[in-house]
Amino acid sequence: xxxxxxxxxxxxxxxxxxxxxxxxxxxxxxxxxxxxxxxxxxxxxxxxxxxxxxxxxxxxxxxxxxxxxxxxxxxxxxxxxxxxxxxxxxxxxxxxxxxxxxxxxxxxxxxxxxxxxxxxxxxxxxxxxxxxxxxxxxxxxxxxxxxxxxxxxxxxxxxxxxxxxxxxxxxxxxxxxxxxxxxxxxxxxxxxxxxxxxxxxxxxxxxxxxxxxxxxxxxxxxxxxxxxxxxxxxxxxxxxxxxxxxxxxxxxxxxxxxxxxxxxxxxxxxxxxxxxxxxxxxxxxxxxxxxxxxxxxxxxxxxxxxxxxxxxxxxxxxxxxxxxxxxxxxxxxxxxxxxxxxxxxxxxxxxxxxxxxxxxxxxxxxxxxxxxxxxxxxxxxxxxxxxxxxxxxxxxxxxxxxxxxxxxxxxxxxxxxxxxxxx
Length: 423
Known about the structure:
The protein is an alpha/beta fold and about 425 residues long. It is built from 17 helices and 14 strands.
């Protein structure tokens, strides 16, 4: 953990800016080779890479609806109840996000924009240490609200099938028809270009490690993607009125994601600065993933002593964090001055973990400062817009001289001819 003073915080900005460049271009040759092999060899390549990277190649990469239903039937009622609460809240939050078309008309011309759902979407759900049903919910539900007809799930195969069951239960509850056991770069390649078993999609969403992220970058253009997501991050603004134990718990909740996660505390409390290390030490001892947390604490955890809430807001807007917690006496007032953040959590009893699971707002958020221009995943990410235009003959005549001026300035003779031939 590194301590800064607001007046000397340029070093913090420098370290955070370096974070934006951590996704090394050196990964591209390896990732490109895997993508090319999948394009060339299809399912055979998927099997070979599953053995190489996951240590297992399932007899069939397809998960049947029967398997999903069996997982659901065997699930604990409390888990199903928790999923249903999350599903209902995520639906309620995302329904108002639907984009709507419009039309501008007069007697002899009209024009407008139609909004259409994407036809087929691939959702990547990471595996490894655990299964992440919340990721499946946060990606599938906005797509379903948008009207996407074909939703495809991919996730790495597991030696212990029990690890997959939470995902299968969630998939069953959302009516998923296609579910494939393939992970990593090979999954992104299969979704983008197709194999004998997996048909290509229009868009790929969902988080992954740095290799998955590099793969999404490389296939972008041939297929759409949601965003380029980096390691998880949280920034907390504190006025010293919330218990320090709450603050530390929220910092550590982000750091347990992986060793690259980032946590920042901006505080005006001298007492918090003095006591935070001992409170961190106490809480870390209670965690299962101590190794991840300890690495992240040493690498990218920062405490900045500020003099005012205004200074903290200024710093936060400049950093543009993925998650921002306003642990202050009047969080709604402070929210009015926040311009850059993926999601904002207001007050002592709204921890970021609430947003990860059951509250409703999407937990797929812009990272590494991209909240300056990017938005959370939403229903709108699974829709596209299409313009249309109608002029009758008299309306075309009215504007033909102006079009002629443009075509001459741009030296596009055929464009001018396409208008003049009609009048």
